[in-house]
Specification:
The protein is built from 19 helices and 24 strands. It is α+β, with helices and mostly antiparallel strands. It is globular, with a radius of gyration of 27 Å.
Length: 742
């Protein structure tokens, strides 16, 4: 990494003395300090009883301190704490320049900031994130309008009066936002945003307990409302999920800025987890729900080089085998190494798979790789939507998981059975779609194989950007493939994008994904640059000790013509490897206008030579419109077709239908021809597909479930198909990706 180490003393974990400055604790908070001994005794007894583990009471009770105890102890040990932190920071110094390549990775990712978008689809999304999503989310998360994020940390730190409000996973979603904001600094170096982040990190540091524990919901409720609330007592308090997001966010912030203020918070939190999970028990294993901490601890290990964190990552995954009476919903019904089919909550599943892949990258454990490949094949060939969407079901059950009726378990927001892919009721949570990209990225790093990047590309052009409106401030939680009026049933989540939902996990997840998207565009090995995503971009990195600079010019995904230019390079021979997507037929490559040969789909085409500054490579990926059909086992799309061009999945939306025509009236003729046309005035500038469809004229179905078949009359109407990623940006509408054949 090309970061300059900037040693900074961490913000003091002690609030200012009462009455001095704006950080003075509130009067109410000060009164609580007088009751430290009573609270301390009660908290220790409750926590030890709750866990029922073989931990010594002293070991766990350091993580059970109430808000009053936290500050009381903090005052008494502040000198030793600061000394310990300074030693830790000095130990961190050599590791900031450590290689990103994991020992069992075939290719390595770039450092944040080595690749940047310069034009086109991804540049537009990055700019939307920078100029609209982050400012809007900053206002939302530092305010108190819908719920509370930063304010909860201020209250727990004693900087504000009030009560903690919101979901108990709000901390984790706040950390995701901070990760995304930090990632944008690699491209912008925005001084104002850096100041905002430093201020927020200072508050988080003050809210953290001296033993490293931090969870505002638990800390406040333990002290203010209910003595039965204690750290790691209830899996549904989401503490470990929250801490996992903290570890990743702090690692990204450190890699981008070189500052250790956030990283020191993460190290203390990880040390607390290491202490609490020292002796694995079935009760502790239950906290592996929605395991963001699998990825988080690996991120922290790579950022610091601390071997204990790798050992903790191994322990986290091994803990799952201790769960008794597990459920399909949480993927702990059977041991991970024996799993062959994706099941249960799709976000939790994809985080589990991504975390296991992360651990494989560091350990090379074949017992991890075998189930990962089987699960990947199951998802891609039997359970993933055409758009890359994951998680077909709002709610359901897992009858296939038990041989007896009483063993049926509830599942929600979940993968369904194989080939169970409804369209109107498709859940496809935005976080699950992002999780699928995270998982496939790690599978790619482990293998260097193009098929995994094909899935990442599918997500990034379809299911993921659909989650946010073109205004950058309204979001989808779910992503159906068909919406009609009226719907046959009421659904839990809005079918229009909204600025806030009670489960606010997806919007900040979108922020961090878009902010970091340039990092997926390239990868490298010892003597090769891999080009994974095609978009206007610039790459500056080092390869075999020599500086390499590339530029990429293209209108992809609207056009399949790509030019890669060598802006600067050394004298050593190296390879360019161009990903040829699986959907391509007859891709061609030229170097300095000289034809090379055709390239095979779903592979990387390698060009190895002694490059010179000014050399260029032209890649041509033909993009005919493709009419797609699904496996006939997918009952919901039987005798229906969808439209795809390049990596982009299209849909038909009601604003593009004649007045009075509904989506349910449309039929696709067998000889339909579609013409691609760029419309710069529509939906931010997209390629639309113009063509003619048949629309049915006939009796209404109102009040009827069945009727005798009638001769159908059709009219021919001109329509245009739009990319699925930008649907519902013109007001409430009907849409469908799949349409019946005539």
């Amino acid at each position: 990494m090309n970061l300059v180490l900037k040693m900074q003393c961490p913000p003091s974990p002690r609030p200012s003395p009462p009455g001095r400055g704006r950080n003075a604790p509130s009067t109410r908070f000060t009164r609580k300090l007088r009751n430290v001994r009573a609270v301390f005794s009660r908290s220790n007894q409750d926590a030890a009883t709750a866990l029922k583990t073989s931990h010594s009471s002293a070991t766990f009770n350091r993580c059970s301190l109430s808000l009053g105890e936290r500050v009381g102890v903090r005052v008494s040990v502040n000198t030793n704490l600061i000394f310990t932190l300074l030693v830790s920071l000095l130990c961190l110094a050599p590791n900031i320049l450590a290689s990103e390549k994991s020992p069992f990775a075939k290719v390595e990712p770039l450092a944040l900031g080595e690749a940047r978008w310069t034009d086109g689809f991804f540049f537009d999304r990055f700019e939307l994130c920078r100029t609209q999503m982050i400012p809007g989310m900053t206002r939302l998360m530092t305010g108190t309008n819908y719920t509370q994020f930063l304010r909860n940390f201020e209250i727990v730190a004693g900087l504000k009066d009030g009560r903690v409000r919101g979901a108990n996973f709000n901390d984790g979603d706040f950390y995701k936002f901070l990760e995304g904001a930090s990632a944008t600094l690699a491209a912008t170096n925005d001084a104002g945003l850096q100041k905002t982040l430093d201020d927020i990190i200072g508050v988080i540091a003050q809210a953290q307990m001296t033993n490293g524990y931090i969870d505002t919901w638990v800390q406040w409720h333990q002290t203010e409302t209910n003595s039965k609330v204690a750290p790691f007592r209830d899996r549904n308090n989401w503490e470990v999920y929250n801490l996992g997001q903290l570890l990743t966010a702090a690692s990204v912030h450190y890699r981008v800025t070189g500052k250790t203020n956030f990283l020191s918070v993460a190290r203390r939190a990880a040390d607390c987890l290491d202490d609490v999970f020292k002796i694995p028990t079935p009760e502790l294993a239950l906290h592996d729900m929605c395991p963001s901490h699998y990825m988080g601890i690996m991120d922290l290990y790579r950022a610091t080089g601390e071997p204990r964190y790798l050992a903790l990552g191994k322990k986290f995954l091994a803990l799952r085998d201790l769960v008794k009476d597990g459920t399909a919903d949480n993927q702990d019904r059977i041991q991970f190494e024996k799993q062959t089919e994706a099941e249960g909550h799709a976000v939790r599943a994809n985080y589990l798979y991504a975390g296991a892949a992360d651990l494989f990258l560091e350990t090379g454990d074949p017992n991890l790789w075998q189930p990962l490949l089987q699960l990947w094949t199951n998802v891609v060939t039997e359970k993933m939507y055409l758009t890359g969407g994951c998680g077909a079901l709002y709610d359901g059950a897992a009858p296939d998981g038990a041989s007896y009726q009483s063993g049926i378990t509830k599942v929600h927001q979940a993968y369904g059975r194989n080939f169970q892919l409804p369209n109107t009721t498709a859940h496809n949570e935005t976080c699950a779609n992002i999780g699928n990209a995270l998982w496939n990225w790690r599978m790619f790093l482990a293998t260097g194989e193009a098929k995994f990047m094909d899935v990442v590309e599918l997500e990034f052009y379809n299911a993921v950007p659909a989650g946010v409106a073109l205004d950058g401030t309204n979001f989808f939680y779910t992503n159906p493939l068909r919406v009609t009026e009226p719907l046959p049933l009421a659904l839990r989540w809005a079918r229009t994008r909204v600025p806030f939902v009670s489960s606010f996990c997806c919007p900040p997840n979108l922020v961090r994904t878009i902010a970091e998207s340039a990092g997926y565009a390239y990868a490298k090995s010892d003597d090769a640059i891999l080009i994974n995503l095609y978009a206007g971009s610039m790459l500056q990195t080092e390869l075999a000790g020599e500086k390499i600079k590339l530029s990429q010019a293209t209108d992809y995904p609207w056009s399949g013509r790509v030019r890669v230019k060598i802006e600067a390079c050394g004298k050593k021979k190296f390879s360019l490897k161009l990903r040829i997507p699986g959907w391509v037929k007859n891709a061609t490559v030229r170097v300095n206008n000289q034809p090379i040969e055709s390239a095979l789909a779903e592979s990387y085409f390698e060009i190895r030579r002694e490059w010179q500054a000014g050399d260029w490579v032209d890649l041509d990926l033909p993009m005919p419109v493709r009419i797609m059909e699904a496996n006939p086992l997918v009952e919901e799309t039987l005798n229906q077709v969808a439209v795809q061009r390049g990596p982009v999945v299209y849909c038909l939306e009601s604003p593009d239908l004649p007045m009075g025509v509904k989506i349910s009236d449309v039929r696709i003729p067998n000889d339909m021809e579609l013409r691609a046309r760029f419309d710069g005035r529509l939906l931010g500038g997209v390629v639309v597909l113009d063509g003619k469809v048949l629309t049915r004229v006939g009796e209404s179905w109102s009040g009827k479930l069945y009727r005798e078949i009638q001769p159908e009359k059709f009219q021919t109407n001109g329509v245009k198909f739009i990319p699925y990623s930008v649907w519902q940006n013109r007001g409430p509408s009907e849409l469908s990706v799949w349409l019946p054949k005539n």
